[in-house]
Amino acid sequence: MEKSSDDTNTENSGLRLKDTELRLGLPGSESPEREDHDQNVLSLKSFVSGAKRGFSDALDGGGKWVFSGGSGGGSEGLFSPRRGGNNNGGNDLSGSDSGLGGPVLKDGVAPKPLVVQEKKSQVAAGNGNTAPASKAQVVGWPPIRSFRKNTMASHPPKNDNDDDNAEAKFGSGCLYVKVSMDGAPYLRKVDLKIYGGYKELSSALEKMFSCFTIGQCGSHGVSSRDVLSESRLIDLLHGSEYVLTYEDKDGDWMLVGDVPWEMFTNCCKRLRIMKSTEAIGLAPRAMEKSKTRT
Amino acid sequence: MESSELKRSKDSVNSCESARRSSFPDEVLERVLSLLKSHRDRSSVSLVCKDWYNAERWSRTHVFIGNCYSVSPEIVARRFPRIRSVTLKGKPRFSDFNLVPENWGADIHAWLVVFAAEYPFLEELRLKRMAISDESLEFLAVSFPNFKALSLLSCDGFSTNGLAAIATHCKNLTELDIQENGIDDIGGSWLSCFPESFTTLEVLNFANLTSDINFDALEKLVGRCKSMRVLKLNRSVSLEQLQRLLVNAPQLAELGTGLFSQELTIREYEELESALSNCKNMHTLSGLWDATGIYLPALYLACTHLTFLNLSYAALQSVELAKLLAHCPQLKRLWVLDTVEDKGLEAVGLNCPLLEELRVFPADPFDDEIVHGVTEAGFVAVSFGCPRLHYVLYFCRQMTNAAVATIVQNCPDFTHFRLCIMNPGQPDYLTNEPMDEAFGAVVRTCTKLQRLSVSGLLTDLTFEYIGRYAKNLETLSVAFAGRSDWGMQCVLGGCPKLRKLEIRDCPFGNAALLSGLEKYESMRSLWMSACNVTMNGCRLLAREMPWLNVEVMKEDGSDDSQADKVYVYRSIAGPRRDAPPSVLTL
Predict the structure, then answer these.
(1) Rounded distance, CA A218 to CA A241, Å?
(2) Which residues contact B155 (CB under 8 A, 6 or more apart)?
(3) How far, CA to CA in Å, does B580 sit from each of B4, B102, B115, B530, B555?
(4) Cα distance between residue B343 and residue B397, in whole Å
(5) CB of B540 within 8 Å of any CB in chain A?
(6) Cα–Cα nearest to B57, from B66, B65, B68, B45
(7) What is the 3-state secondary structure (H, E, C) of B431-442?
(8) Which residue in the set B154, B369, B510 is minimally distant from A78, CB to CB?
(9) Confidence of residue A79 (pLDDT cuts 50, 70, 90)
(10) B483: contact with A, CB 8 A cutoff
(11) Of B436, B457, B402, nearest to A65 (Cα)?
(12) How far is residue B345 from each of residues B376, B379, B386, B466, measured CA to CA in Å?
């Protein structure tokens, strides 16, 4: 489950909800996503023509190929400029091509972007002082076994060391919302950006909360636990016992699934797996709301 | 005795013959040599003289093959007639990171066919990065009546059906160790295939399978295998189930829990705590998926003698880790996720003075927008508290030269130093300088260094340092580093014990590649991908060095002259014949 803020970007062009949102950032710095939307093409071009060299060019030409994550523990916020941005330090290090490149420099190298993933990539190359919108994903980097990658993706680690009052953390690369389940002892958090649609979200939540559901559905020693399968969970979550609801920007609780996915990720503040007995009366309101929204 | 002959100076063969005449029977020699376990010692022994070569080959029971293509199964069988245990490694290490095409090779089947004929009494098979099919596993299960131990790591091509075959047919199985693999997990019924009469299992590791297993079958299996000492469960096993298993297996030395979160009553919690603390032999603990502060205290009493704690799938926070570590004074090896942050690592430094190995994995490796994880401060804190540290794998988003210098000053005994600054080519974030001095400090100070992985912004100076100082270095991993051929030339010209060199995305070209011409025969392998090597350079290498296999993997759409991925390895088996079309052997 890879983040695809770039895909979200292009898909959002119709809705343009991001344009109206209040974003963090220094005066004069644009939201990286908007900026990169145009620069995307340029960045990709430099990749396409440069092939392997494209990557070094990124190091050479654009100055800092670095991210806000490196700027001293994040105290400066997500979009603050890199410490020591594009100054002499940068030029010394990655100055001339001859410094970085070997004697064999292919000009007519066939197009093959170094950064290849299932989706398009964005490069911070030209962005100088602003943090890049998203990391250009390089194949096989960081060097983590696929097994571990896949395991962490399907079971994202909990992240509740931050402010409890912050219900959704905005960043161009993620969108964490809290998920609570009636009867479960504690909350979880999910990043809505990593899911492509409702189906993926729903199955991820099923996996995440299966332990609680197991606790709920069987009494001690009952073998139902042993044979609990995914289909059973689906029944539990989507069938009679629980429904998935969300709180939107206006503070209203709605049934998940009524609005298009992009709209949902933009206005969902938190999720709640509610006992279906308590969810009566939600559906009609949700329909009304989506009508007024469009 | 013909002492006058003995006094004559002669070559080793003659002295061997006279030694034989002085009645040192082969049987005695074999007996003595059978006590030798180390492969390197055995290799040395086999070079002494013909008699010793023969005695060694007849007494060897375990063969280690670091590159399955360096030798053929027929050659192995011819030389070593009495093998009972085989360790085989296949694909280049970068296949773990998807850099090697899927059908590249390293199929175990040809080996199994030869083993079935030559080693019918084979007992152990340990495979790493091999391709294995269910058919092969079935073949294995039925061909070797004495088969005892199967260990698979980073392998792929098989499913749980293959495991079912092993469970069904291997009557003498003592070890089934399924580590991280690309396994097709179809279901958990394989575990129910162990017959009711089966009692010999000592090691059972299915932690990395996802499907539910039949708990009833598992409980009975654990109950009747009284010699079980290693049990690593998967996520499907709950806390309550864990407790039930433990009351029947308090002798366990290594435990991997299942899911470590569940609504428990007070009584259930106490029962769990009691069951855990009854495992007096427990020295290794892992699993702990979804563990939170609520239930971790159940472990405290069980951790008194713990030497290896693997929390790499448990996203603990710093406070939770600190509390847990306060109960682990004997800890020697610790694996954690970077969710514990620097504060958590400070707790490591404070609580684990005997620590020898630390691995910090990133919880969110592909997300740089969230500012979290560990920094240089955490690593430094550990180094102050753990002077015996000699193995580290550290994923971070920032590092400084000064910090690394301090770290190696505190811990000069590093044998394995693997530092991954996750942003490629990132400089020292305080000074903006390259990280050359950091790795210079490492190789200068840590004279015992065997394995090094470098990262960050690096010029050729780093490689000058490595070539000059890293006299014991055997494995070097390089990515997004260096400025010119000179860097790689320094390494190839310098490190006398270099065996494995893997490079990606570096500006090293043909001159660098060819500078190691003589060196590659003393190495196991060389990997270069996304560098500046061309087909012509590779052809030249292949032409000059007939004992090397030079394989090139082309990417779609790349220039014909570019050698996108190059894998060079020494071999006495000649070029391999099972390469897929995308792999060109030159």
Answers:
(1) 14
(2) B127, B128, B129, B130, B131, B132, B181, B182, B183
(3) 62, 10, 24, 20, 13
(4) 16
(5) no
(6) B45
(7) CCCCCHHHHHHH
(8) B369
(9) very low
(10) yes
(11) B457
(12) 10, 7, 11, 28
SS3 B480: coil
- Reply yes or no on whether the pLDDT at A23 is more than 60: no
Q: Which residue has the tokens 């060097």?
A: A143
Q: Is B530 helix (H, G, I), strand (E, B) or coil?
A: coil
Distance CA A257, CA A188 (A): 20
Q: Give A135's contacts in chain B (Cβ within 8 Å).
A: 366-368
ipTM: 0.87
B366 touches chain A (CB under 8 A): yes
Residue A240 amino acid letter: S
**Residues A154-211 pLDDT 10s:** 776 654 444 333 334 443 445 778 888 877 766 777 888 888 888 888 888 887 776 6
Interface contact B559, partner A, CB < 8 A: yes
Question: Tens of pLDDT along B15-49?
Answer: 555 555 555 787 888 888 888 888 889 989 999 99
Surface-to-core class of residue A291, CB atoms within 10 Å of its CB (0-12 exposed, 13-18 middle, 19+ buried): exposed
CA A163 to chain CA mean position, Å:
19
Q: Under an 8 A CB cutoff, do B96 and A226 touch? A: no
CB distance B375–A78 less than 8 Å? no
State whether residue B128 is helix, strand or coil.
strand
Asked if B186 is an interface residue toward chain A (Cβ–Cβ < 8 A), one would say no
- Kindly state the average pLDDT of the residues B464-470: 98
Q: Out of A264-273, B368-377, B512-521, pick the least confident.
A: B368-377
- CA B520/CA B74 separation, integer angstroms: 24
Secondary structure, 3-state, chain A:
CCCCHHHHHHHCCCCCCHHHCCCCCCCCCCCHHHHHHHHHHHHHHHHHHHHHHHHHHHHHHCCCCCCHHHCCCCCCCCCCCCCCCCCHHHHHHHCCHHHHCCCCCCCCCCCCCCCCCCCCCCCCCCCCCCCCCCCCCCCCCCCCCHHHHHHHHHCCCCCCCCCCCCCEEEECCEEEEEEEECCCCCCEEEEHHHCCCHHHHHHHHHHHHHHHHHHHHCCCCCHHHCCCCHHHHHHHHHCCCEEEEEECCCCCEEECCCCCHHHHHHHCCEEEEEEHHHCCCHHHHHHHHHHHHC
Tokens 């020494």 locate to: B570
Tell which of A169, A226, A231 to mutate to test the B interface (max B CBs under 10 Å).
A226
pLDDT at B361 over 50: yes
pTM, full prediction: 0.71
Q: Distances in Å between the alpha carbon of B81 and those of B56, B178, B525?
A: 11, 28, 27
What are the tokens at A66?
Answer: 């670095």
> Can you read off the two tokens belonging to residue B386?
């753990």
Instruction: Please give the Cα distance from B518 to A74 (Å, whole number).
Output: 49
Give the mean model confidence (pLDDT) for residues A54-78: 36
